[in-house]
Design brief:
Length: 778
């Protein structure tokens, strides 16, 4: 017999299935091989198999009796058997005229059990691990799954969680895999430090980043969880913050987090280099495309000489120029900015160069990471599709839209080469986040005639922004107080009939008990919204409401003003109307606005059936401006107006405008304007104007991550005109007030407390200094 040789086969990770290869590791399996250099055998014996049929194993090795084979053939046979993921060990030897294949099968997983877990449900852990029932078991997979579970706990802020995997042997080669979990305590962030910053204080920068220092509200806010990905995102957030405020040389030198195991708490440190602050110097436009004159496009440029350098202004200029040139018929036009720093004058000259650009088309759009959100919900935010000309501006616009949906933690869009030189593949990577919300709000009003009914009131709501992963919005809210009850349900489909038209409906019921009478309002609205530009949109709606007023007792109505008593005696009052709104919105952050304009103009016509017959116009605009980046001081100026006119007869008293804290603070609800000469009841007015100036600032002492801000304000308003017979005080007399407030971005929604003092008022006005309720900015 020829001499035999023995080979030890190291099987690489790339050649093995998931049953053998672990992510981030390389598993080495050894196979014993003892064959002649070139030989034939008369039979193939399979040993050690319990579940896998012997003939199946023979088919895998691809060696046949009577045919010569070599050591390479044996090596390939071993690799193929390992690649099935069914065997922990494989040994192939030659014994006389037989080739002996000895295998050791992996056990089969019967169940995967989790013990000791409370913060993460079994279902979520089962989805995360690789070991699954009826799949092959391996110790490598069990260790990898234990690390996966530990990582899941780190993501919810429990870095000291321990996970141990063990096996419970069963009959027939089956096992139960059990993970024993000790969840540990919450890992906090005890400090966030910045080094190298002088233009902005630590408090201001802490407000910018998403990682927050632990405080007594962290158990509700859950924003003090350390995460490497969040830290990287915070680096980018800091860069954009500085770049948009003139610091073009800003760098994040390092960011790290040190865990104090004794305290189970992180200390996060950012080391930055701010550099100098720049302003825009000369701004020029160059074009290499014949027929495109750069000077004619100057109005599209958002950067102005002398202004503080802002990367966002440069980006907006690129978008505006690209869209304008594309509209002229140059679909592949590319706008490239070139900056030239002048270190002496601290100015940056910017030249926007317009070139024809490389012709490239989108082969396909590939979406990854969306486990809940459906593909079409993401695809419809793109103004391009497969086969269209590639346009980087439209890609960036789609990225902004996806981020604005608030469905995802992160959105990254990249390109990879397609199958042809002029084709690219768009790869959209998203990380989803929770889109369901439960909130509780509270309010207090001291006025006995207030629209909330007076006293404390509470409201709870359940909201889902991405219903069934379809991008639909659904909300149910209920609330009330001593003298009030509110119920509402809303639904919105943002892409009605596959177009960028938001369609939805609202149904509601509101009851109020005032001093002398009760009011019951039931209604519904069907609405359609259509974007006109990125900042301008319109909304059309049909509104139906039914109002009913009743006196608490037969003698209560006697003390009311005649106009109010007559309206109550009319019984049910039905309003059927259509309305249209124009909305202009350039606010940078709707939750924490610092810059931009929000304006709303609404026209409503009542009389499509029902009892009400009037035309009503209202308008409100608010301008936000950062007064000091260093102090995070924000100023806002708001103006509003409204007019209502009956087109058949006179307005009833309840259709008039009533003053509220959105018109002027420091006065009771419906506490100014025309009133009844006998009872002194305020009757509302046909026309109002109002204005407000306010400055908002971080509340001292408390960390900005707590979300508490202070405000000082001055309000002015007038409410006048009436169709009520005998009303007095109908002249255009102005009121004014000054005050201070606290604004809290609480886990239950934005809350606000104001204390206002009237400085200009009439003798008939009703004062209410203190107001506490849900903050409504827009």
């Amino acid at each position: 017999m020829k001499p035999t040789s023995r080979f030890m086969n190291a099987v690489s990770a790339a050649a093995l299935s998931a049953g053998v290869v672990m992510t981030g590791t390389v598993a080495i399996e050894f196979a014993s091989v003892q064959v002649a250099e070139a030989a034939t055998v008369s039979r193939i014996d399979v040993r050690g198999n319990r579940r896998v049929d012997a003939e199946t194993i023979r088919n895998y090795i691809n060696i046949r009796p009577g045919r010569s084979f070599s050591n390479d053939d044996v090596n390939d046979a071993v690799k193929r058997l390992f690649s099935t993921g069914l065997f922990a060990d494989v040994s192939i030897t030659q014994s006389g005229g037989a080739l002996v294949v000895t295998v050791e099968e992996y056990s089969i997983v019967n169940q995967v059990l989790f013990q000791g877990n409370k913060k993460i449900k079994d279902r979520n852990l089962s989805d995360a691990v690789q070991l699954q029932p009826r799949k092959s078991f391996s110790n490598q997979l069990m260790e990898a799954d234990a690390e996966t579970i530990r990582e899941a706990y780190r993501r919810i802020g429990r870095d000291d969680a321990t996970v141990t995997g063990r096996v419970q042997e069963l009959e027939d080669g089956r096992v139960n895999v059990i993970f024993d979990i000790q969840e540990g305590g919450r890992t906090k962030i005890k400090a966030i430090n910045f080094e190298g910053n002088s233009a902005f204080g630590d408090g201001r920068l802490k407000d910018v980043i998403s990682t927050k220092q632990s405080n007594f509200m962290s158990f509700l806010l859950r924003n003090d969880i350390y995460d490497d990905n969040r830290l990287r995102a915070d680096e980018e957030t800091l860069r954009r913050f500085y770049y948009n405020r003139g610091y073009a040389d800003f760098r994040v030198i390092s960011s790290n987090a040190e865990l104090d195991e004794a305290e189970n708490a992180y200390t996060v440190t950012f080391v930055v280099e701010e550099g100098e602050r720049y302003r825009f110097g000369n701004v020029e436009i160059e074009s290499t495309i014949s027929g495109v004159d750069g000077e004619t496009l100057r109005s599209e440029v958002k950067t102005r000489q002398g202004g503080v350098y802002s990367a966002k202004d440069v980006e907006d200029s690129i978008i505006a120029l690209t869209e304008q040139v594309a509209g002229m018929g140059y679909a592949f036009a590319q706008v490239t900015p070139r900056g030239n720093r002048n270190f002496e004058t601290r100015e940056i000259d910017v030249v926007y160069s317009i070139d024809e650009g490389q012709r490239a088309y989108i082969q396909r759009i590939e979406i990854r990471g969306n486990q809940r959100t459906r593909d079409y919900v993401i695809r419809r935010e793109f103004d391009l599709s497969e086969g269209d000309a590639f346009n980087q501006v439209l890609v960036q616009r789609a990225k902004r839209r996806l981020e604005a949906l608030n469905f995802f933690q992160t959105v990254n869009i990249s390109t990879v080469p397609g199958s042809q030189p002029d084709q690219v593949v768009l790869v959209v990577d998203v990380v989803e986040k929770s889109t369901g919300e439960f909130s509780i709000g509270a309010g207090y009003s001291t006025g006995q005639t207030s629209d909330s009914g007076g006293g404390f009131s509470v409201e709870g709501s359940v909201t889902e922004r991405n219903f069934l992963g379809r991008g639909q919005f659904i909300r149910f809210a209920a609330g009330g107080g001593r003298d009030s009850r509110d119920y509402s349900f809303s639904f919105t489909e943002p892409y009605f009939l596959g177009r960028r038209i938001a369609a939805g409906f609202d149904v509601f019921k509101r009851t109020r008990s005032f001093d002398d009478y009760d009011r019951d309002v039931t209604g519904a609205t069907v609405r359609f919204g259509l974007p006109i530009t990125e900042a301008l949109s319109t909304q059309l709606a049909y509104n139906y409401t039914q109002e009913e007023y009743t006196c608490d007792a037969s003698d209560d109505c006697v003390s009311l003003a005649t106009a109010i008593r007559d309206a109550i005696d009319e019984g049910k009052w039905i309003k059927s109307s259509v309305s249209g709104s124009l909305i202009y919105n350039t606010i940078d952050d709707m939750k924490n606005p610092h810059d931009g304009i929000y304006a709303n103009l609404t026209l409503e016509a009542a009389g499509l059936g029902g009892d009400a017959k009037f035309i009503k116009a209202t308008a409100r605009g608010t301008y936000y401006k950062t007064l000091s980046d260093e102090l995070d001081l924000v100023g806002l100026f708001s103006v509003g107006a409204g007019h209502i006119q009956a087109w058949d007869g006179d307005l009833r008293v309840f259709d008039h405008f009533s003053s509220s804290d959105r018109i002027i603070r420091g006065f009771d609800y419906n506490g100014i304007g025309p009133y009844d000469a006998t009872t002194k009841d305020h009757l509302g007015g046909k026309t109002y104007f109002n204005a407000s100036a306010e400055a908002q600032f971080p509340f001292p002492i408390l960390p900005e991550s707590f979300g508490l801000r202070g405000a000082v304000f001055a309000d002015a308003a007038t409410l006048y005109g009436s169709d009520v017979a005998g009303a007095i005080g109908t002249d255009m007399n102005w009121r004014a007030s000054v005050g201070a407030g606290l604004i809290w971005a609480s886990p239950f929604g934005p809350l606000r407390v104001d204390y206002a003092v009237p400085v200009v008022k009439e003798d008939s006005d009703e004062v209410q200094n203190f107001n506490f309720g849900i903050s409504t900015r827009f």
